[in-house]
């Protein structure tokens, strides 16, 4: 492969060499299903959909695991406020996320595990970390990761422990150090009995970071190729995921990829700012194809600024591209879908392949497409004579 990616851990562009030639393993942090999906939530799934599609187009077998976090503090709090069972609340929004992915044509993952379905794997992982001397038991139901015990803690984000923000609120009295984080959490007063499981250390529920380490290594092995997610997850979530794996003797991810977020008129999406825009609201205005085009044709490491203007501009470009395809089909007949599916990099424009191989540079790839459309329009004009030409 000639594919290169920007490895967030190394902070450099690296040649991508999979563990096993022709096979690529990817873990993507999926949704915490506490509420309806908005355009910011979808960015990550869409960015890594481009990755998976390109790797497969280049002839690789890709195994993608995208988890569902269906148990955490916010799910329990919001479901209680709504008077709904926590598991029903989580499932309701899991279905909404699934519908949103389908609406934008995002491919299904190979596996989509729920956190609540992998409690045994989490208990095993905790025991391995305790046995290795990197975790300790607090009051019944609480188990904490001892960050000071792990020499490479902070290596993902290149931070020193003394400069790190404390991971969790609450100032639990049974913590040895404020930087330590929960692997397992005792139930809080008033939480439903069904939101806790029995363990050797007491009844409780998993910590957020533990869930992903257990599920990624369960499905992809102790070492896998790529771990992905939003840039806001680098610390503490991904740092702590890696720490748990290393503490248990698991090599974990070989490459890290992080996508930037979506802003609205230059401001980060926030409920306090009142700028949360649901995917359902956007697709009521324009087609899903235009929404995908607007969010997916900006480099994954660059911020996407959403505004009515940016959406309109994306719609204009999409119409031009669609118009060219329609004129081409009218002039030459439609190419069977199976033939399109069989097209490999050797059959694509060299500039496009070079751009996608360069850390998924979709912006440069789109420029190559525009050049091909320009040439195609000229060829159509020679073939069928003058007529309306859609320029890009």
Polypeptide structure, described:
By secondary structure, the protein is an alpha/beta fold. About 40% of the residues lie in helices and about 15% in strands. The protein has twelve helices and 13 strands. The longest helix has 25 residues, at about 310-330. The chain starts with a strand and ends in an 8-residue tail after the last helix. Mean pLDDT is about 95; it is low at about 390.
Q: Give the overall average pLDDT.
A: 93
Please outline the major beta sheet: 4 strands, parallel
Strand percentage: 5-15%
Helix content: 40-55%
N-to-C span: 31 Å
Estimated structural class: alpha/beta
Helix and strand sequence: EEEHEHHHEEEEHEHEEEHHEHHHH
Provide the fold topology.
Blueprint lengths: L3 E4 L4 E4 L7 E6 L10 H19 L3 E6 L6 H10 L3 H18 L15 H13 L3 E3 L5 E3 L35 E5 L19 E2 L1 H13 L2 E8 L3 H14 L4 E8 L2 E3 L2 E2 L10 H5 L4 H9 L7 E3 L1 H25 L4 H5 L8 H8 L4 H23 L8
Parallel strand pairs: 3-4, 3-9, 9-10, 11-13
Antiparallel strand pairs: 1-2, 5-6, 6-7, 7-8, 11-12
Helix pairs in contact: 2-3, 4-5, 5-6, 8-9, 9-12, 11-12
Key terms:
single chain; about 400 residues; alpha/beta; four-stranded parallel sheet; four-stranded antiparallel sheet; 12 helices; 13 strands; globular; disordered C terminus
